[in-house]
Every structure is written in C-alpha cells, then in structure tokens.
Amino acid sequence: MNNENKTNINWYPGHMEKTRKLILKEYKNIDVVYELVDARIPRSSKISNIYEIIGNKPKILIMTKKDLADPILLEKWLVYFNNLGSKAIAIDVNNDEDIKKLISLTHELMDELQAKREEKGLKKKVIQALVVGIPNVGKSSLINRIVGKKVAQTGNKPGITHHLSWLKTNHDLILLDTPGILYPRLDNAEVARNLAAFSAIKYEVVDVNEIAFHILKKLNRYYPEKLKERYGLEPTNMELDFMACYEILGPKMGAMRGGEPDYERISNRIINDLKDEYVKGIVFDNEI
Ligand SMILES: Nc1nc2c(ncn2[C@@H]2O[C@H](COP(=O)(O)OP(=O)(O)O)[C@@H](O)[C@H]2O)c(=O)[nH]1
Ligand SMILES: [Mg+2]
To answer: Which of 39, 124, 150, 221 could be 69's S-S partner, Cβ–Cβ 3.0 to 4.6 Å?
Structure first.
C-alpha cells in the first residue's frame, strides 16, 4: 500500500454510528431517499456505505451545484449513475425548473406505491423523503427551496442538524434533513483533499497548503486554461512545483511576508476562490 495515498483519519467515527441509529428510528416512515453528492466531486462526496444506512429504500441520486460543475463531466457522471440503476438528476438549487423536475421524478418513483394503495382503497400518501449527504453538499438549501422558506440553516461550513423534524411542503412531500453528520471514506488522501477543497471537511483535517496545492494541481491537469486565467500560472505537463507557483502568486496576490511568499494567506485565497465561485466549471473526480 502506498503511504502517500493514505491518511490516518478514522473514517467511521462514533457520530456516524449515531446518525445511523437516528435514521433507523425514522426508517419505517421513509418512502424515498434523496442522496446528495456534489457534482464537482461525485465520487469523493458519495457516502460509500450508504446501503448500511438506508438499506434498499427507493433512492434518487441528486448531483447538486450543477451550475458550478464542468457540464461535460457532469453528463458522463449522470449516465454512469443512471446505468447503476439509481435514478439520477443534476440540479442547481436556485433553478426552479430543476426543483420541479426533482419533485416530478419523486412522484413518478412513487407511482407504484400509490397505485397499490389505491387498489386497497387507501388515499394517496404524502411522500416522506429523507435527505442525506455529507456536510456542505446542499441539503439545507434544497430543503429550504422545496419548503419555500428558510427552515434549515445553510452555510459554507460543515454543520449539524441536531433535532429531527419532518418538514411539510406544498408538493405532497415531507422532508427530513440528515439527523447528524455523515462522511464518506476519509482514509484515502485524494478523497480527503477533494473534500477539503470543497469545504466538506474542516481544514484541521488536511493542511491548508496541501488543499490549495491540490486545487492548483487539479486545475493544471484538467483545466489548464483556468490555472492560467485566474492565477497567471503557466500550465505544465510535468508536476507543478509548489515553491515556484507560490513565488509567482505571492507578489501577484500582494501576499508577502518578510520578502517571502505568505504561504498560508495564498493558500486561503485559492481555497476561497472555490468557495466564492470564482473558479467554477470544474469536476475534480475526473476519472469515472
Ligand atoms: N452555486 C450553488 N451553490 C449551492 C447549491 N446548493 C447549495 N449551495 C451552497 O452550498 C453551501 C452549503 O449548502 P448547505 O445547504 O448549507 O449544505 P448542507 O451542509 O448539506 O446542509 C451554501 O453556501 C449554499 O448556498 C447549488 O446548487 N449551487
Ligand atoms: Mg445543513
């Protein structure tokens, strides 16, 4: 095993188990699961042991933040997920059409269940959907959008939904936010860096310089024009050189200290560029 590709992070800590138990309590009430992944890191942001948590409930795989993703790669991932058998859809949470499509798809998926109820003389059920996904993937934003008002806290920092509550909407649909925190595997360094780059895990887990340089390397490899455009760095077929890059970026960003590039400040700027959507149209899980 190559040590460079391993982190020493325990990826299934106690709070995952707690989350699993909380979901289990609501299990019988769940008709469908919305599994959210970030369209820019569809593999890294996916909860790998999702079946242990949601069993075989009907599921819609939702790729969020499609407005920030590379459309060509996004399409490839959609095809991939659809071929796996799960219904997959890409959305921009601020796009009404996308939200409508998701709601239609949800009811389509429930057609059979509703038909069976009708046969038994029961009335149509209001569908209950559990929204799962790692921190910062857009769970709360999506819920607020469907509910039509701000009921769940959003933000660019990993956070926790502490209490359980099903939220009513006007679409014959009731929603439940992930009750707790769910993480994908973090013992893989590539995955951990991708997650840190998109603020899904705290910076304490991966060093800021490591995150920022990871972003530059990805741009160099897959989006060289963006590396040049945003950072004035010359793309190369070789490995990028950290020192060389920062020596150019320091003066350019006005981030110097004692005649040296201020590494941490430069790194934070690069990370914030992703957060603030200055760098977009990208997918970091490039190999499907
Ligand atoms: N551009 C864009 N930003 C989004 C989208 N969905 C969520 N966000 C942003 O991503 C951040 C995290 O969202 P949040 O709903 O708090 O994620 P949660 O931790 O999964 O509940 C917020 O700053 C949202 O505004 C989307 O589809 N497009
Ligand atoms: Mg949230």
So the answer is: 39
CB 184 within 8 A of CB 137: no
Distance separating alpha carbons of residues 24 and 54, to the nearest angstrom: 8
pTM: 0.92
| Domain spans in the chain, listed from the N-terminal domain onward | 3-177, 207-275
Number of Cβ within a 10 Å radius of residue 99: 18
Tell me the CATH architecture of domain 207-275.
Orthogonal Bundle (1.10)
Q: How confident is the model at residue 160 (pLDDT cuts 50, 70, 90)?
A: low
Which amino acids bring their CB within 6 angstroms of ligand 1?
64-65, 67-68, 92-93, 133, 135-141, 154-156, 159
Fold topology of 3-177? Rossmann fold (3.40.50)
Structure confidence at residue 212 (pLDDT): 97
Q: Is the pLDDT of residue 9 over 90?
A: no
Q: 136, 137, 140: which to mutate for ligand 1, most atoms within 8 A of CB?
A: 136
- Contacts for 238 with CB less than 8 Å, ≥ 6 apart: none
